[in-house]
């Protein structure tokens, strides 16, 4: 596809994300996502993070298969999860479930450092290649069981999980800084909710459910 066609599709994607946020304002608690998040979504070429045969559909607001029975989340969910984290420029962010690297590339626009963990080696290697091509030099990726986090670089300001456990893994809560936030889908396969967890200064954790979602199961649990 021509670059100008892809650019037009990306603009359409941003419009759809904005419309979804407004339509769900009662559920997500705001009528528009943060400008920094929207700029990051507009900057990252999503078509570079999907299989080549699916590039014509890259900017549609739908999840797309990336192999190994995994998907890249629909753009609105990527934007919403990023927005819920409220990432600051000096933050270090842990991502569990790299996939082909799209969410990590969006996070890289906003955070100081992104540590991303992918359990499937082939996906992880493809993600490394794509992130390198997009010059996301502040993303570090490893192939491992994300259920255990990345303790060597903990604690993290923010944690994002792109696959769903039944319950929030205690190790990931432990690796979150006091004052930090985690966004994670959790629950049984037919009853998953997108959850925002916050760790307070005294170590107490509070959770808030937002949307009903459907993510693939977090492996290694």
From TrEMBL:
It is found in: Cytoplasm. Transmembrane segments: none annotated. Gene3D superfamilies: Vaccinia Virus protein VP39. Its EC number is 2.1.1.77. The keyword Mitochondrion does not apply. InterPro entries: PCMT, SAM-dependent_MTases_sf. GO terms for cellular component: cytoplasm. GO terms for molecular function: protein-L-isoaspartate (D-aspartate) O-methyltransferase activity. Its main location: cytoplasm. GO terms for biological process: methylation; protein repair. The keyword Thylakoid does not apply. Keywords: Cytoplasm, Methyltransferase, S-adenosyl-L-methionine, Transferase. Pfam families: PCMT (PF01135). This is Protein-L-isoaspartate O-methyltransferase.
